[in-house]
Amino acid sequence: MPYPPWLRTGPEPTPHERARRRQRARWFSAILSAAVQLPGLAIVIALARHPLAVHDPARAVVVTIGILAAAALVPPWRRPAVIVVAALALPSIAYAPGPPAAALAVAFVVARTVFAGDSLWAWCTLAGMGLAGVTWTIVFGPSQASVRALVVTIALCVLAGVVTGMGARRERFRIAAREESARRRSAAEEERLRIARELHDVLAHSLSQISVQAGVGLHLFDDDPRAARETLRSIRSTSVTALDEVRAVLGVLRDGDEPEAADQAPAAADARRPGPALSGIAALIDDARASGLIVAFQAEGDANIALVPAGTQSAAYRITQEALTNVRRHAPRARVEVDVRVTGDAVTIRVRNGRGGAPQGEGAHGGRGILGMRERAAALGGTIEARPLGAGFVVEARLPFRAPPSSASEGAAASRGANS
């Protein structure tokens, strides 16, 4: 649904600004309604001064009352305004010389009442005007005054119908604008949470690994300088990798601040997102081993990796990374078993460590680290289970996915080729 111009851009007006706009609209309608009646008043005054004209004081009175109807548009009252203005303008509509200019005041107040959401008052007022014209015709017979009143009433009914339709359309646009604003806020919040999870995973994993390696380097500094040197090289490599990943996350933030970034296609936005892949888990295992962990790694279904979307691969990598970080932090000497399996519709991850227990302060329901893993899995419609197992702890995740038809056919062909 295309947005009308008044809902496309611009900040939301404050209550004070809205009140000033309504006040200006009331004064404009009152001045214009009074101005169009001034020629009729001039005609009445001219006829009163002409020696051959028949003087009719009632005409001067009804024109003056019509101008008072225009003045009644100024006060900020809502529902009674339509009744008061119509009652004052009806005699001028029926008897004033020239066209029924006082009908403009009634048109303004009817439109204002309908836009304010009080259309019932407007329609009841118009029904009263029509009933007055019909009653006058029945009692006193057809006359120019009764015909003018009925014709103006019919025209005002048409106007009220048009304004009612415009008001309903404007309300639909407002609802659509509010929903769009809520959707954008929700998308921005999800993006902030995603970036926070990325930073948590990168920094927690890297700093934990650097801390362990620094401790090993200090221990070996005097006894085995060569091993200490290798540990320092590993710390340097880990820190460089962490800085690259942090730069990638901050690059997404910079791109999001550019004006043209909002107009780019979703695929281009996804391409900017930092996304480690399943193929990087092997390097992750090597880093864990270099930091002193004893890790047994098993991977199955490499032929199906091409079917897995980038978001699912990134989540699988981060879940494995967080599980290893928890092991390194709370059970650094435990044996770890990492099992990653990729099927045609899901990625399954199992990380189990021996004695060392659950991460402190987390338990089966988890703290920040396990909570982040649960959020990643839930975002993809997957499940994750973290629980004590024997003397150790196990994290099991299942991330379902739906491969595109083209990728599915390519993956099936690759699987057949690998089996042959």
How would you sum up this structure, described in words?
The chain has helices spanning about 5-10, 15-35, 40-50, 55-70, 80-95, 105-115, 120-140, 145-220, 225-255, 265-270, 280-290, 310-330, 370-380, 405-420, and strands at about 295-300, 335-340, 345-355, 385-390, 390-400. With about 425 residues, the chain is α+β, with helices and mostly antiparallel strands. It folds into 2 domains: about 5-180, no CATH class; about 275-420, 2-Layer Sandwich (Heat Shock Protein 90), CATH 3.30.565. It has a 5-stranded mixed beta sheet with strand order 1-2-3-5-4, covered by helices on one side. α12 links the parallel β1 and β2 (about 335-340). α2 (about 15-35) runs antiparallel to α4 (about 55-70) and α6 (about 105-115) runs parallel beside α8. The longest helix is centred in the middle third of the chain and has 77 residues, at about 145-220. The chain is rod-shaped. The chain starts with a helix and ends with a helix. Residues about 260-275, about 360-365 and about 410-420 have low confidence and may be disordered.
Task: Please supply descriptive tags for the structure shown above.
alpha+beta, 420 residues
Sheet bearing the most strands, described?
A: 5 strands, mixed
Total strands: the figure is 5
Q: How much of the polypeptide forms β-strand, as a percent range? A: 5-15%
Radius of gyration, in angstroms, nearest whole number: 39 Å
**What are the segments in which pLDDT stays under 50 over at least 5 consecutive residues?**
258-274, 360-366, 411-420
Gross morphology: rod-shaped
> How are the strands ordered across the major sheet?
1-2-3-5-4
* Number of helices in the DSSP assignment: 14
- Whole-number mean pLDDT: 78
The termini sit apart by 53 Å
Domain module tally: 2
Structural class: alpha+beta
Give the ordered list of helices and strands. HHHHHHHHHHHEHEEHEEH
As an assembly, this protein is single chain
Helix content: 55-70%
